[in-house]
Amino acid sequence: MFTTAQAETRGVPRTDVARLVRRQLARRLRHGVHMMPGVPSSPFEEIRAEWLATDPARTAAERRDDPEPVIVSDESAALILGIGDLPPGGVHLTSVRRLQSRQQWVTIHRRQITDREYEWVDGLPVTTPRRTLEDLADSGRWEQSHLRALANDAIDRGLLPASDLAASYNTGFSLIRRERRERRLSVRRASEIPRVGSRRAMLTWSPEQAYWRRLRR
Length: 217
Fold this sequence. Notes:
By secondary structure, the protein is α+β, with helices and mostly antiparallel strands. Helix content is 42%, strand content 13%. Helix 6 crosses helix 8.
């Protein structure tokens, strides 16, 4: 995959790029982003093309050490990580800078993401499973049942360690863990545990203890 701007920096004018497209020697993915012939299609083509378009003059390799990177996030990150089956809802990116796209299906969120909250996956910077789930929980776009399914999927696939889940206690992702804890409590005999929702129940177990109790069963 390459951009018209990348081609120009290597001495290939945009008129020649347009000629390649007309002769079917390159495939146009979006304005300014193209694919060479013979390259297999990828389910992440649209995401990669929109990410490249945010800084079209530089390749992915040249962007690896960006101090303020543009990162694939939210539903797009979940798709790449293979977490759940949420509708993509367009392409979601995150940057600490204020960026805009002309494409109506592209949303660029303005957030701070630390170096530990994203990783490179197949040549793209993608939020970690934990940060992805936290962003989706904070977005307000999904019901708790969707978020619970995402969390279960991430845990079952080994993408989200128990320690990461417990460490997220004060984030938007806590609602997923709280519901998981309440469901676990509800199936225990009343004589064994306090009533769910009572003050005593909330004080009996810490989130970490509740989570590890589930794993031991």
